[in-house]
Amino acid sequence: TIPYLITGFLLGPEFPSLFGSLIGMTIMISILRHGYLLPKKNWDFAPEEKWPDSWFGLLKVEDSAKDVKTQPSLAKSWMPYLFVGIILVLTRLPQLPIKSFLNQISFKWSNIFNTDISASTSPLYLPGTILILVSIITYFIHHMNSKQFKAAVTSSAKMLWGAGFVLVFTIPMVRIYINSDYNDLGYPGMPVAMAEWVAANVGRIYPLFAPSVGALGAFIAGSNTVSNLMLSLFQYGVAERLMMPAVTMVSLQAVGAAAGNMIAIHNVVAASATVGFLGKEGLILRKTIIPTLYYVLFVGMLGLLYIWMS
């Protein structure tokens, strides 16, 4: 938590998830290596031949790949992750000219379908471009040959196909929801209409459910960020109509959306694709829904008590 907060204050909101976890992991590894916080009894999984079929993914690790002599050093193994973090920081800091340089190449679509809605993208500034760049750098650092690199790209492309297919439908749905106030009939947008209904029918116990709404948004939209973009206006509207502190309500939304990351369709599909678990997303969701429900219910009760006592 402390590295997360420090990173957020010093570098901005884009980096706590990356550097907070890396710094925290480094600290924990150092503590464990010195013999602290270790369990009294060692625990490990059962032998591989006793694993249930649901534990096996599409990726197969051959015995030849386990030969220590063929593996890169620990430093080389971590270099791609370090490069991603360093390049992300350098390209996001407003004090450096790199950010403005990368944003010079931009594609914009204005007045979409004769509305005031516009969209733009800067391909060189996208995180995906940085990942591609680091993969090329890794090719040289790990002294890979063209056959190895091609195999890695092909394997990754096959895994990403399933995740990309989901995103093709998820992202347009989110954009329609966010911009639903643009209509010829003058109807309020979906967030505002939902806020009016909830305020009228749920009443002052709504803070109990605010984190669950955020988690549901993350489940549908695929991330904490998109859930907040979709539903913050809704949560704010409910707070205004119920005459409750809007900041607290939106905070409950953000906390719930963070918990919803555990069941976000996009995250589950992307993680499954990474480890070769495509087709077993249902199994993962059945496992992660349990801590998610505990999280949102506990936070909802805390939020309800805080608002009632303030």
Q: Output the radius of gyration.
A: 23 Å
Helix fraction, binned, reads 55-70%
Q: Number of helical runs?
A: 12
Largest sheet: 2 strands, antiparallel
- Distance linking N and C termini: 26 Å
Q: What general outline do the C-alpha atoms trace?
A: globular
Note the beta-strand portion. Answer: under 5%
Structural class category? mainly alpha
The strands making up the biggest β-sheet line up spatially as 1-2
Number of domains: 3
The assembly state of the depicted protein chains is: single chain
State the total count of DSSP E strands: 2
| Unreliable spans | none
Q: H/E series, N to C?
A: HHHHEEHHHHHHHH
Rounded average pLDDT: 85
Summary tags:
single chain; 310 residues; mainly alpha; 3 domains; two-stranded antiparallel ribbon; 12 helices; 64% helix
Descriptive overview:
This protein is mainly alpha-helical and 310 residues long. It has three domains: 1-39, no CATH class; 74-143, no CATH class; 190-309, no CATH class. Helix content is 64%, strand content 2%. Strands 1-2 form a two-stranded antiparallel ribbon. It is globular and about 65 Å long. 22% of the residues are buried. The mean pLDDT is 85.
Could you give a quick summary of the protein structure above?
With 310 residues, the chain is mainly α. Helix content is 64%, strand content 2%. The mean pLDDT is 85.
